[in-house]
# Entry
Amino acid sequence: MVIRPADHGIFASSAAGGAGYAGYFGGGRESGIVDTVDKFAFSDDSRTTLATGLSTTTSRLAGMANSGTAGYFGGGTEPDTADKVDKFAFSDDSRSTLGTGLSGVRYGIAAMANSGTAGYFAAGYESGTGRVSTVDKFAFSDDSRTSLATGTSAALNDFSGMANSGTAGYVGGGYTGSYVDTVDKFAFSDDSRTTLATGLSAITRNLAAIANSGTAGYFGGGREGVGYGWVDTVDKFDFSDDSRSTLGTGLSAATYELAGMANSGTAGYIGGGEAAAYVDTVDKFAFSDDSRTTLGTGLSAARKQLAAMANCESLA
# Structure
């Protein structure tokens, strides 16, 4: 078994869930757009709020991480679209803002990461252009940015991403002018893209994603294009063959515009969003059996249109 540093805000790992390892929910909309970053310690699921939040109030952003080193929140609205990428050092939670941001000002983006190597911010709605398929790649060695020759299979926004670190990243759902069930897969070996033969169980936008690296990834909640209501559905994709199943237990409530992060090998967390009203709920899914509990302490405020990332101990 190869042990790597953990991964993305939508999934990361900690075999022990030890002290110092945590997940972060950042930005979003309360009564207005906020810069808040809430931190959940994986050792006991306790919540604190960072003294330093995002560099600006931002919603409809995305998060990913180079676990053991730093997490990144990028893009969003403030209320105009942003190209900023904020970096949080996991050693002390200090924030810096990259000199080079996204290749365009975008919101409604998704993110995924190949921890130890590079993180990706994908597609979204770009100011002055509309929906784009661009995928920006940030090398973790120096935070330099390139854009992939092959982007997402369609220009879209309001989708989500997760990854099987060391192998491939996945982006699913979203809006192209119509709701879609598409799941694109990017091989980390060469950044080539394929589209899974089996997509989500329904056409869905404004969903969240988490992953148990080496095992399976999950897309949960969102607004469904049939009837245009929000849902509690959680789809699971087995990384061994990309087959899809749907969990018997979904979210604790039908919710959209939410976010997810994970302690890979242990549990994934999906938090915030709107379920008729904005919510502060954080649902926890145990990866051992996919059972769901709801944390006693949720976000510091009811919030939607937020992002998440995580710092974890190890990634198998």
